Prior knowledge:
The protein is of the alpha/beta class. The protein is built from twelve helices and 18 strands. The chain has three domains: 5-44 and 93-166 and 262-330, FAD/NAD(P)-binding domain, CATH 3.50.50.60; 66-90 and 169-259, 2-Layer Sandwich (D-Amino Acid Oxidase, Chain A, domain 2); 337-414, no CATH class. The strands form three sheets. Strands 1, 2, 8, 9, 10, 11, 17 and 18 form an eight-stranded mixed beta sheet that branches. Helix 7 packs antiparallel against helix 8. It is globular, with a radius of gyration of 22 Å.
Amino acid sequence: MQDAFDIIIVGGGPAGLAAAEAAARGGARVAVLERQSEIGYPIHTSGGSWITDMQALGIPAHLYYPIYHITWLSPNRQLQLTYHDPVACVIDVRGVYQYLAGRAVQAGAALYLRSPVEGPILEEGRVVGVIARDHTGRTCRWSSQIVIDASGFSATIATKAGLHAGYRRYGYGAEYDYYAPNYNQDELYLIMGSQVAPSGYAWIFPRGNGRVRLGIGVLRPDTNADARTYLDTFTQRLPQLAPAFAGASPIEYHTGLFPSEGTTHSFVGNGFLTTGDAAGQGSTLVGEGIRFAIYSGQMAGRVAAAAIRAGDTSAQFLAQYEHEWRARFGRAMHIAYLINRRIAAYTDEQWDHSLDMLARLTPAQIAQALRSDFTPRLILGIARRNPILLRTASRKFLQMMLSQFGSKTSPLAEAPGP
């Protein structure tokens, strides 16, 4: 039996580290159990994010690379956007994770590396700790008043404690991080179509100093396509981009899984909470999870520390975290999921049509939609700039999205033309 902690956090990713910092600052005695030997390794994400969020989360500017130009490609269309004041960025994934680890340690949390968690300790339906191996391979029992499951896609505690059954629909991505001396570091690409990524998309994310991440993501079981095969043949499938990768060589190779079923039914149980990918809290629109994981981890850590102070670790008390999260992110994540289910089956012709519609929007509107910052004003603005949406089956889909804001009447009924 290891020393008892107030809170044990399973997983040293962005959600777990943010939860650790928040809980420790709330006065709790916190341990983070990370199965890898290094925080931020291996990398499972492309690192695309947004500058305003990095600033709000206190991430130093040297840990993210601003993007000035975004180019969208479909089989027969191209759309180029310029942001004189950049809004998007590509983060230094390992650097950001280790920075978050430093903040957690400074707040008083203890990190244990190479400590894979095998499952929860349950007593009368309550989670009272975890069973884990330590860095020498010994199996240990770690007791705690609360366990926070931040184990990512595997959802180690949530699945074994019966909170949910695990993910059956998910994004699978494969990515090379290149040193590419001929690649334009000001240009980010988002690429759709069956030739490069059936039921998914490809990305090219520059991150400064000659480095660029090229990746392919596909949705399972929507397609049986292997992202790795499409990645290895990318420049043959899209020869117009081959010159940008002339003389390039991969420095790193990444793969990752991303839950694509929307958020889980519940985030809490007696004695435990789930956060980040373990709760399906990322945006399924483009498979973006890091900033949401940090925000969610902070919420989970604050409520967990409050539960320790109150001496109440019941699911009813911990549900404050779920209420806060759903009030802030629930609507946007559900709309992102509705869009994801719709576009996952797009044909090449539909992708071309989508870029025609995007071309009618402002760069700011496109960025807001990509960021999953959905508002009635944005949805109506998209409809007004694409009046054909008001005369087709898409009208019903737009109305369904607007219904998420609780409107009893249809704003589309009075929506003017362009």
